[in-house]
Amino acid sequence: xxxxxxxxxxxxxxxxxxxxxxxxxxxxxxxxxxxxxxxxxxxxxxxxxxxxxxxxxxxxxxxxxxxxxxxxxxxxxxxxxxxxxxxxxxxxxxxxxxxxxxxxxxxxx
Amino acid sequence: xxxxxxxxxxxxxxxxxxxxxxxxxxxxxxxxxxxxxxxxxxxxxxxxxxxxxxxxxxxxxxxxxxxxxxxxxxxxxxxxxxxxxxxxxxxxxxxxxxxxxxxxxxxxxxxxx
Lengths: 109, 113
Prior knowledge:
The complex is a heterodimer of chains A (109) and B (113).
Chain A: E1 3-5, E2 10-14, E3 19-21, E4 24-26, E5 32-38, E6 45-49, E7 60-61, E8 72-74, E9 83-91, E10 96-99, E11 103-108
Parallel strand pairs in A: 2-11
Antiparallel strand pairs in A: 1-4, 3-8, 5-6, 5-9, 7-8, 9-10, 9-11
Chain B: E1 4-7, E2 10-13, E3 19-25, E4 31-38, E5 42-51, E6 54-57, E7 65-66, E8 76-78, E9 87-94, E10 103-104, E11 108-112
Parallel strand pairs in B: 2-11
Antiparallel strand pairs in B: 1-3, 3-8, 4-5, 4-9, 5-6, 7-8, 9-10, 9-11
């Protein structure tokens, strides 16, 4: 069965430190992977997709099919990065989607 | 303004009393979806629709119904709500019939007593 695992419920780092939010998935087919973010009092929004291979707000994520991972990284954390982050897997020709349980990122000044 | 709207935003009801949560998007999107968010479980897909009159079950469809008679609207119907349907509900839409980039509504907090 399809599964998305985000092992950390809470990640707290100092401003300027590197950030890595972990995401592992389980899917036998070709996955489509996303990171969504929810800032305080804002709607859930797409941060990035593996298929576009772009960097958004300094964040990058690389799909590692061997390790079935899609970790989100940023070299230098900023206070405005504090938010809830969800990893998501699109499957069944991407008509269905499954989300991880989320990681709350807290950046300390 | 391009957006997804949901109504009501908050609802307290009693077991068995039918209710409908509306969802509307003004972006001419093909794909729409409903999710519920529960503590520690993230978002779980309830139903989705790839186009008008085309709907299908997500991971947790039991106790819910949907319809897609018009492209812009995708209401979520609870025929006989139960306390285990107390949750935060999100509607989302995307341009193509695939999950693509989804745009989320503000959420509806439902409490079933």
